[in-house]
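Quick start: read one record
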Amino acid sequence: MSAIISTNATGPLAIPFTPCAAAVPPRRLLLVDDHELVRYGVKACYTELQGVPLQWLEASSLQDALEVYAREEPIDAVLLDLNLADCRGLQGLRQFVHAHPHARVAIFSATQDEFVVRQARALGAIGYVPKGAVASELREMLSALLWPQGAPQTRAPASAHALFPRFPSSALYDRVAELGPRHLEILEMVLSGCTNQEISDEMRLALGTVKNYVSSLLLALDVKSRSHLVSLFR
């Protein structure tokens, strides 16, 4: 504590002086979406949370997002759209987590398919934010993303339900959540209709290795055939 020196009729007088509290630093988010109107709307609606200002960074493609994150660290959370011009499905999430292992990435998508949500979680997403969420739900999710140990005003740890949509328990989806990243990637390609040869070419794996992966998928998910597997997720 310092003092301001003033004077009065009898001599100098020391008046204690306490500096003003420093402004609360903003929380920084990277919003990755190829629709400019979506980015504009989110930024306009959420300029602060819990009395803390938000600083939004933007990217319209995965490559832009990777570069912005590397250049602008630290960033508190990333909202990543599922479908961008330079990546499809959950490939963007895989690439982002691989490039920036410590990034806190949440999927930001209009897709609310249970398989996609559980797969994103298994691949390392810390949340799944539906674009169609009402304002109060979106505020709750953003707060949980930014303050996993509790927002400034509540200090209550974030619930997992605040970060991911709720689905009824399913043994099949629980088994999917236990798969490793490579199995999940191959599963996604199988469900997209790719043949073993196409998976082999895309992932640069030997055809025999791909067949082994597919066989282990069928065994892990307790299904009898490739067509049976596809039908379960349709």
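Residues 1-7, 17-21 have pLDDT under 50 and may be disordered.
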